[in-house]
Design goal:
With 500 residues, the protein is of the alpha+beta class. The protein is 35% helix and 16% strand. Helix 3 runs parallel beside helix 11, helix 6 runs parallel beside helix 7 and helix 11 packs across helix 13. The structure holds pyridoxal-5'-phosphate.
Length: 500
């Protein structure tokens, strides 16, 4: 019953009801001082909730009242021991997880396809990464899951790793076998930290992959703004203790204080409180609606000439343990369109906004808040594109001779780690021609995209094999992240005078 409450919203309501003479921050005075160009469109109501710490409204960094209650309700809903509201996205949660799990000089195992916030976490903590490669799902040119066996082997070689950090599910909705991976981590006395940015909704349907906390993760972070009803930047961090692992909750708290504002937005925190209530009360219905809409679109798109839409069939392939079927991974390469071109056509000609695109696919995130009409517009636009076989805007054209994807090439070995990401970040750098980069230490990751797995990470010496591998992508005109100004003609490396 108590999950129907929204303690933080109620607390701010109590403050507003006192009609205070307000001399605190923010300066717009609850709603009066917002630019009229904006309030004419939105009305003033919402701005009254943009308040700060008061005796009614508690303090995120030292919660004892409404925020504490709201976070406790969140913990209970997800089956966590402690949960924290985050106002700087999953980005700051990932940083805090890494900073609290591994200190300078200690080792942490990291999936090579981790979001860049993991790299920022490594810079902040000074920990030494030991990488594990995700598999590649060649048919779709995207990353697969992380192999439990590879995790075990990496722990056997590096038993002093304090934790494993990985992303599951991925942007494309593919999940790793977290249950098996959690057991392996705990066997080695290490923590499992899961970037569950795309998985806050998994807990509300048995048709979705198992959530990280249910699978045995020690910590996870979820972007509640990505798939549930919270405002942009609103995320949560959950902790679940397991016997035999060391998890320093106070260290998590102090790390969060380091990476979050001292003026957290109450609009964002209220949105988390309300999103939690909605999930608690209506979560199952919401997820079943999202799944139904996505399934409808998947079936219709699959009937369209030259279009493919990924589904359950990839489970069991490339270390994928489950798929979030609310994600629509759509490919029209059979009619000669790259994912970039399909995305651009949908946007420019049909006002259909996809979340992202890559060389092969365009990705739609379907949520409970989409409508049948949204799905029909997407399906109809795909039908029109198929009929017109429109080509040639905003991309470089799918090259038929590359039917065998470059992503099928075996990845080169992980290069020598000359500097930790932290040392690399604080070193002097220089820009040099890509042709002269072999043997130098990369200052930033270089990743052919898709599948977006860095071949070289910051602080690693660019080996001859890694250079050749990346060069083959470059010669083919493929997208590569990590060059200067978006091109691989020049790259940033550690300056020659740095002695390593
Ligand atoms: C896998 C993954 N982790 C972390 C993040 C960062 O999340 P946020 O935008 O909530 O800071 C993203 C953002 O897209 C992401 O895709």
């Amino acid at each position: 019953m108590e999950q129907t409450r929204v303690p933080l919203l109620e607390a701010v309501d109590r403050l507003i009801d006192t009609k205070p003479a307000y001399f605190r921050i923010p300066g717009h005075r609850l709603e009066r001082g917002i630019c009229e160009d904006w309030t004419r469109k939105t009305g003033t109501g919402i701005f009254a909730y943009d308040v700060t710490e008061t005796p009614f409204t508690d303090d995120l960094h030292c919660p004892e009242g409404a925020i504490m209650e709201a976070q406790e309700l969140l913990s209970r809903l997800y089956g966590a021991d402690r949960s924290f509201f985050l106002v700087n996205g999953t980005t700051c949660g990932n940083e805090a997880m890494i900073m609290s799990a591994a200190f300078a000089g200690q080792k942490i195992m990291i999936a090579r396809n981790a979001h860049k916030s993991a790299m920022m976490g490594l810079v902040l903590s000074g920990a030494e990464p030991v990488y594990v490669m995700p598999d590649v799902l060649s048919d779709w040119g995207i990353q697969g899951g992380i192999s439990p066996l590879m995790v075990r082997r990496t722990f056997e070689k590096n038993p002093d790793c304090k934790a494993l950090f990985l992303v599951s599910p991925s942007y494309y909705g593919v999940a790793s076998n977290l249950k098996e991976i959690a057991n392996i981590c705990h066997e080695f006395g290490a923590l499992l930290l899961v970037d569950e940015a795309h998985g806050g909704h998994l807990y509300f349907s048995s048709r979705l992959p198992v959530g990280a906390l249910e699978a045995g993760a020690d910590m996870c972070v979820q972007s509640m703004h990505k798939v549930t009803g919270a405002l942009t930047q609103s995320s949560v961090l959950h902790i679940k203790r397991h016997a035999g692992t060391e998890l320093d909750v106070e260290r998590v708290v102090s790390s969060l204080q380091l990476v979050q504002s001292t003026s957290p937005s109450y609009l964002l925190m209220i949105s988390l409180d309300c999103a939690r209530k909605e999930l608690a009360v209506n979560g199952k219905k919401m997820m079943s609606s999202a799944l139904e809409l996505a399934e409808y679109a998947r079936n219709e798109i699959r009937k369209i000439d030259g279009f493919r839409c990924m589904g359950e069939e990839v489970t069991g392939v490339s270390q994928i343990d489950g798929v979030d079927l609310t994600r629509l991974v759509i490919s029209a390469k059979d009619i000669g369109l790259t994912g970039f071109e399909l995305d651009a056509l949908l946007f420019e000609k049909y006002d259909v906004n996809m979340e992202l695109s890559d060389y092969e696919n365009a990705l739609a995130i379907v949520t409970y808040a989409n409508t049948r009409d949204d799905m029909d517009r997407l399906i109809e636009a795909c039908r029109m594109i198929s009929m017109e076989k429109v080509r040639g805007i905003g991309g470089h054209g799918y090259n038929k001779k590359n039917d065998i994807y470059v992503t099928n090439m075996p990845l080169p070995p992980v290069p020598e780690q000359a500097l930790t990401p932290r040392e690399a970040y604080f070193s002097e750098t220089e820009e040099i021609e890509w042709g002269k980069a072999a043997g130098r230490i990369a200052a930033q990751p270089i990743a052919p995209y898709p599948p977006g797995i860095p071949i070289v990470c910051a602080g690693e010496r660019i080996s001859a094999e890694a250079w050749e591998y990346i060069e083959s992508f470059r010669r083919d005109g493929r997208h590569i992240h990590g060059g200067v100004n978006g091109k691989l003609d020049m790259v940033k490396v550690i300056a020659d005078k740095v002695n390593v």
